Amino acid sequence: MLDVFLLVVYKYFCSRFNVRAYASLIRSLFLRILGFDITRSVAIFLAMSSHVYAEVGLGNYVPADIAIPYRFISQIAPLIFIILFGTMLEIVYYPRWTKEKQEEVASRLFLRAIQCWVLYAISIFVLFIVDDGYSFAFSISCLIFMGNSPYTEILKFYSVALALAPVVLWARGRFGLIPLVVISVLFQSAWPIFNSMPDAYSDLGIHLQIARFIKFITGFGSPMIAGPSLLHGITLIIAGQCLGKLVAWSLKEEHSERSLTGFSNLSTEKIQILLMAMIALAVGIAVSLPSGWFLSMADMSFRIESNFIYFLLGAIFAFFASLVFVWVVDIKLYNYKNQWIACSFFGRTSLFTFSWGNILLYLNIYEPKNEVSSFIFYFVLIACVCFMSLLFDTVVRKSSIFKNGLLQLNLPLKRSAQRLARYIY
Predict the structure, then answer these.
(1) Among 42, 68, 110, 408, which one has the highest count of C-beta atoms within 10 angstroms of its own C-beta?
(2) What does the alpha-carbon distance between residue 327 and residue 334 come to, in Å, rounded to a whole number?
């Protein structure tokens, strides 16, 4: 929505006042690095395709030599868009935060947090209606982060992570990035210690719902939780801030004092240095990766137990994928930027896709009976998810009536976020 608003403002200035200086200024301030948008869009597509893969039972028919690499890649997808969230904090929000705009930044982050929770609540309501396993009491426990849902746990994570993002920005400004990285590495490295501690549910006898909440916060415990834990997610956000810092280093010197503002500001040589380093690291890991690790990544074993190897490999490949797309999209194939923008609609509709795309899967009642019907239904559902997101993106960009309607729906949420930010800051 912010991108749409800025585009409208830009076109308004150009058509109404015809002042090229203002138009140039607005354009230079708000052009995005498309490589990140494409990376996020690919990650979202992979995450949704894995949900459809599970929904239609395609794993029963796909050969292992295809299924395992696919599952490996799809398990990394959630880590990619969490890391890119940290990158966005570093290159978009942190510069504003340091310019004494804490209330404004916090208000925007709180608004996104509330939006995530509302969409998560809608998805839980749908499950309450269509799934007998979601009683009223269990549905309420889900809304207060003590439950679990098949596909929309990422919305639960983001609703809390976005609300805590101002704290991350404050710590970033107060202590710097290096101490945050050190704390993150120490936390991840302590996995053997945390994993060997008594289990809250099976050993200490704590109520299952409370044990789920503990698992959501810490990542440790026997209850099954689909999404990443909050603490592990924050370490990924900090890793994303490091990625943002690295890309900021690649800015040409004449732009080094501003935040990332567009394609032409990137230094090809510095991006290539970063890319070559990540390629060497990724290839080295891929060659030396034990087969057992590869399988544990693919079957979610590492993810379920919050193994530090899962987050380490995810961070490395997220850095690798992001730098590859930045190099290809923003440097080598920059002339095709309009086509890249058109292809990055998943990145612009992430909340819509994660909510309504997964709700579509919740509402599905058809169960394929054989291999052919599973493959056909897989592609049908993928096409439906893509069409829904593309249609939403198109309507938001081109229909003023629809945009105004969304703004009116968001108005109470925006006022609540502003009041909360004003109270805190």
Answers:
(1) 110
(2) 9
